[in-house]
Amino acid sequence: MAETVVQPSRSRDLDKLLLRPGNIIGANFDPGLELREDLAKYAKVLVVGAGGLGCELLKDLALSGFHNLEVIDMDRIEVTNLNRQFLFRFEDVGKPKAEVAAKRVMERVSGVNIKPHFCRIEDKDIDFYSDFSIIVLGLDSIEARSYINSVACSFLEYGSDDKPREETVKPLVDGGTEGFKGHARVIVPGLTPCFECTIWLFPPQVKFPLCTLAETPRTAAHCIEYAHLIKWDEVHSGKAFDPDEPEHMKWVYNEAVKRAELFGIPGVTYSLTQGVVKNIIPAIASTNAVISAACALETLKITSGCSKTLSNYLTYNGAEGLHTKVTEFVRDKDCLVCGPGVLVELETSVTLQKFIDLLEKHPDLLLSKASVTHQGNNLYMQAPPVLEEMTRSNLSIPLFDLMGKTVRSTLHATGTTSKNDKKTSALRKLRIVFKGVDGVTDMDIPGAA
Q: What are the tens digits of pLDDT across the range 99-154?
């Protein structure tokens, strides 16, 4: 009987991982040609961010056998991006990063389909993210990481034994760089620490005394923060500053330049203005390449089972020589994000409006302007206006009725919360229990209605 001839894939090394067994493989690893084909046909990967790290990720994932990729990024290409974001050219300046990056990779790697999304991550509903096998992060913002982490953890469901149900686990691979330093981490909600479990790893954002900004600025950052925190409110009384609005950012830059010239301070640039205002972490091309390689490998390991995954946080330092280290952090069992959810006990008469008001006062949530969904159904949406109008009538209806008179169930609430005097988008999973139904008794839950 003639042996089946396996056609070599684009990468000889990829075949060595996928077509033959090994000693440190995953529990469900089944090597062979079918696995390689299934990876290309069925695995759907979302790349969040199409900047320096995101460009590398798209290239590496496409060359690692993933043919169904999507990328989401809200930024446009700037001249300052061209030194490290290798998928972009000078003629691309002003175009959406996601669209250009997707086009360039598809031009170079045959058989790959990449769908771009030029929008904010918050603009997509939860169902959009549920469609992917795995989500890979190439972000430069703590707030954006926190939001995607909360979205992935919102899919997680626990069984009666308080153990995660495997089919509800949405893995994340997170990469980040800062100069010559970087990290790659694997987040398996319910099993490994999520982003919020280890939020303490990130140093607090530097804050400047207002008296220094107003009277004795000494650095370019002082001039930028003066324009951002003081001058903006003086000129635009009552108008909120939007860091994602290019016109707002240009205004702050121009005012910072004037301030710097007044005090003889050099160094104010548009890219630095963005970095200071949005707390963007600087990037170097070589560091992006190293961290992307680690993230792409972990993505391949998780989806194929060809090897055991990273446990669970890798750090890289290339400032002086080369140093890598893997640390296994421990999950916080009481985490509000990756845990079973915040338990809220309610009377059956509580309306949806009263429930939304409760979320703002609950000590563990403090969630304002909340939108609420139940099993994929929009109970109330704050935006866009058309959805707000369609769901507004639900506000006066008891939540018990809107949830199909289910005694116990899970809701998802999306809104804004304050952290370090800064408002950020947040998604929270809530376990709702209605009192006085089928023997349900008071459980003395803090913050319950």
A: 999 999 999 998 999 999 999 998 888 889 999 999 999 998 888 898 899 899 88
- Dist. CA 347–CA 345, nearest whole Å: 7
Measured CA to CA, the distance from residue 314 to residue 327 in angstroms comes to 6
In tens, the pLDDT along 199-234 reads: 888 766 666 677 778 778 889 999 999 999 889 988
Centroid of chain to Cα 286? 23
- Of 211, 223, 306, 335, catalytic: 211
C-alpha to C-alpha distance for 278 and 219, rounded to whole angstroms: 17
Q: Is 211 a catalytic residue?
A: yes
Enumerate the H helices of 264-345 as residue ranges.
270-278, 285-304
Distance, in Å, from the CA atom of 405 to the CA atom of 14, rounded to the nearest integer, reads 52
Comparing CA positions, the residue from 178, 282, 149 lying closest to residue 221 is 282
